[in-house]
Amino acid sequence: MLNISDLYGKVEEKDILKGLSIDVKPGEVHAIMGPNGSGKSTLGNILSGRPGYEATAGSVTFKGQDLLEMGTEERAREGLFLAFQYPVEIPGVSNMEFLKAAVDAKRKHHAQSDLSSVDFLKLARETCKRVDLDASFLKRGVNEGFSGGEKKRNEIMQMMLLEPDLCILDETDSGLDIDALQIVANGVNAMRDGNRSFLVVTHYQRLLDYIIPDYVHVLAGGRIVKSGDKSLALELEAKGYGWLENEVA
Amino acid sequence: MTEQVESLIKKDYAAGFHSAIESETLPPGLDEDVVRFISAKKEEPEWLLEWRLKAFRAWQEMEEPTWAHVHYPEIDFQAVSFYSAPKSMDSKPQSLDEVDPELLATYAKLGIPLHEQEMLAGVAVDAVFDSVSVVTTFRAKLFEAGVIFCPISEAVHKYPELLKKYLGSVVPQKDNYYAALNSAVFSDGSFVYIPKGVRCPMELSTYFRINEMNTGQFERTLIVADEGSYVSYLEGCTAPMRDENQLHAAVVELVALDDAQIKYSTVQNWYPGNAEGKGGIYNFVTKRGIAHTNAKISWTQVETGSAVTWKYPSCILKGDNSVGEFYSVALTNNFQQADTGTKMIHLGKNTRSTIIAKGISAGRSNSSYRGLVRMNPGAEGARNFTQCDSLLIGDRCGAHTFPYIESKNPSAVIEHEATTSKVSDDQLFLCQQRGLDAEKAVSMIVNGFCREVFKELPMEFAVEAGKLLEVSLEGSVG
Questions:
Q1: B350 lies in which domain range?
Q2: Which of B268, B294, B239, B200 is nearest to B457 (CA)?
């Protein structure tokens, strides 16, 4: 699904990623953990093609294609989804209009016809229910006046509607109370189908109680310093990141 | 803003073709003889000729205003031709079948097939091609309701009493430099009269079009809504692409008598000049309405065209409890300049006005809101709410707000809110990450920004306005 090999990347002339490698197979859930400033968010931004984030060396293949050669929207249409840590507001643009445009753009890319407004509305309403959002959120401006938890649930709703092949969750758990966390995690778990892959970027082990990862990687200083299974996350929780940094040094 | 919204603009002006229609055009220049020629050509009565001459003499004494936040080379009025008419209009057509097919093809290209509109849309169109009204559809149906909708040149002959009473009653000849010029040389335009208590059975619509080179267009529109009547009027504008600047100085007068309502909507898409700022229309327009007791006047405008715009649709709230509204979207791109806004003059008791102005600037353009809210001593309990929002796209454009507030009545309430925002990289990235391309994303964000104004437009105009914004923003992200 996703193969990252010896990736170097920078943001505004500052080198952040320094030789990062991960291989994600279809259906796998990989958790990326690490201390603040280790490059966790940079990884998601580089993979999704955010302007200002640049890969300087190494390679990334996504479903057999050279990801770094693809434009931002093309990556999205090919099935790469980034759930934002801080989703922005777009005043006056209804969630519904935004979501339909996104779904239509993807369908067009795959030579499918647009969904009718009626079919889409039905689908969107059902999806709202799955993340416990009232259907009235469809009429509101994108993230406009949403609480932190509503914004995150809105992200998961978008993910469900777009049915991506690879979901990158960028610290989706930050700022969520336990109820919202469970809703988000349930949403993610419901989407695990053996083919869809997840890259769960998080600072805390807490989220991984609900989304059980197949692999846990520790990112420090711009590269993976340790990999393991879910028990690694628990170990990190108990010991903190300090021991790893010492071990590596 | 970063490279994401770096804007250098290339835009195709879809209406920028020129129709090969033989025209009768007066040589450039302006003196009393030109005014007499125009009046004679239209076989006008003596009073109207005198009215024009009075305006012309006043104009000669006046100076071109320079207070607006726009810059352009001085206009040489002696280089402008003040009259142009398609020749085939000499034998005046009585129906669409008799109209020059080339002319109709032009309208079709502009997306306003008259036949179709007549059949399907239920919109009566008075199409002004250069200086002569080509054809007025639906007149019969309107006539049944007692509504008068005809070229102003025709109204002069058929309804002289109404014309004498109301022409210049809202915008006097000497009102301002361009209004005086218009009063002297106005070529044609629309006249609307809605009788007492009548709700106009359809939306009235006029498309103006400047076709001839070096031709100024000076239409004059007069709408009189008699007591308790209602009318919605739509105006759309385009002009061919030319390297030279063309002058457009129109006057619109609205009279809403007691309990009457006039809704006036404009989508203005005059040629804005090319990406280097060459060519384009100079749009110097005076629009004003007077609202009597319990009357209501609404101006809704979407301004995307013209090289220079100077326009302040205004309301004089004369009668008690009268209401004035102004909803505006002004979009400038490339080197366009717009200085636009409104004046709400509160005279009567408990008068109310609402101003929602949205300015969008892209490229190297400048967009200014200029608005006056005046509460006169008699405006007991009057209220105004003003909201001005500016949206910037890129980092080489400007947005300016010039609000003037004068209150001479302590019981009057005036509220003013203003915001400035940018299309942020984060918003764009969110859209692109969801698969939308950058242009679609910008147009969606801008449309969202304009939502409050678009919802005031009649449905078909709202759709057109949205599309127009999309076209006008083409190339504003790269």
A1: 130-473
A2: B268
**Stretch B166-173: mean pLDDT, rounded?**
94
Q: How many helices (H) and strands (E) does chain A have?
A: 8, 12
Give backbone dihedrals phi and psi of B363, rounded to 5 degrees, phi first.
60, -130
Which residue does chain A place closest to B451, by CA atoms? Answer: A92
pLDDT given at position B112: 53
pTM over 0.80: no
Q: Is residue B121 part of a domain?
A: no
Q: How far is CA A9 from the centre of its chain?
A: 18
Q: Which residues of A touch B424 (CB under 8 A)?
A: 88
Tell me, yes or no, whether B120 lies in a domain.
Answer: no
Give ipTM to 2 decimals. Answer: 0.93
For chain B, the average pLDDT equals 80
**What CATH code is carried by the domain that includes residue A210?**
3.40.50.300
- Closest approach of B446 to chain A, Cα-based (Å): 9
Contact call for residues B217 and B178 (beta carbons, < 8 A): no
Pairing of strands B204-209, B245-248: unpaired
Average pLDDT over residues B396-418: 91
Please give the tally of structural domains in chain B: 1
Nearest Cα neighbor of B134 from B145, B126, B142 is B126
Measure CB to CB from residue B435 to each of A73, A90, A92 and give the nearest one: A73
Count how many domains chain A has: 1
Residue B119 C-beta-side C-alpha neighbours within 13 Å: 5
Is-contact B256 B262, C-beta < 8 A?
Answer: yes
Write out the residue range of the structural domain in which residue A177 sits. 2-246
